[in-house]
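Q: Could you fold this chain for me?
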Amino acid sequence: MIHDNQIFAAPMAGISDKPFRMMVRSFAPNVPVVTEMISCHSLTGRHKNCLRNFDNYAAEGNVGTQIFGAVPHLMADAAKILQDAGAAWIDINMGCPVPKVATRSGAGAFLMRDHKLAGKIIDAVVRAVQVPVSIKTRLGWDEAHTDWMDLIHVAADNGASFATLHGRTRAAGYVGAAVHPEILDMPIPIIANGDLETAQDVENMIKSGYAGAMIGRAMFGRPWIFGQILGTASVPENIGTVALKHLDLMVEYYGARTAIPMFRKHLAWYSAGMPNSSGFRTKINQITEVQDIKQEILQFWGCVANI
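A: Sure. Below is the predicted structure, expressed as structure tokens.
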């Protein structure tokens, strides 16, 4: 039997915002979820154009907040801000392969190349907060440098409580099948991540020694997937009602002007594989009004809602 604390909703840029976290919660109230990664510079500077800098997590339940950066004291300050905002734990991004993070900023996956700096960042964050601290990393920089075990030991030595391991290198990005190595004699619990989407996948990871599994891209258009894995929810009878609820949350959080273009990708995922989904996507990509997009959702899914 899989328990709530054995499956995690991954931090996904442009996906794991507050509206999506609330959708996940509606199907699996107690599953740990992780926010989109947040820049320590943006957070400590309280940049007003980034709404997630001002989220309050106290009412959201078990939410981990992920930060990225390369300056230890700023990472520590950011962690304190997030702890005060109600974060259940702080996750340090040490695996993002995007060039603006991993190369130009010296953060994310770059920290797999600089374990000394990684250790300083972890130590600074751990000392700054009272909540647990974790890291999320990859197998290594490339196939010639798969030294993830060394970084896990660095994390443990500097006070990290657990780690998530994505089964690809930085060079691989998201291409190719994820590999989940043996994790014998690791000093802290390890959460598996990469190409995991079913209860059987999660059970296989747990049987092989992982403390749990983190679901990433498999949750696109399927916020109910965590309830499915736990056996407490199934695919909704009418996905259109889910899409309408998600849209309302997006509009409430971002405002209609920002929410509509952001929501189009979610509608593409919700409708994927359904008859006439291509025509539906073409229509919604041209819509700029909330009521109009709701009408298209009602027509496509044949659902009934008060709009």
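A (continued): The chain has a mean pLDDT of 94.
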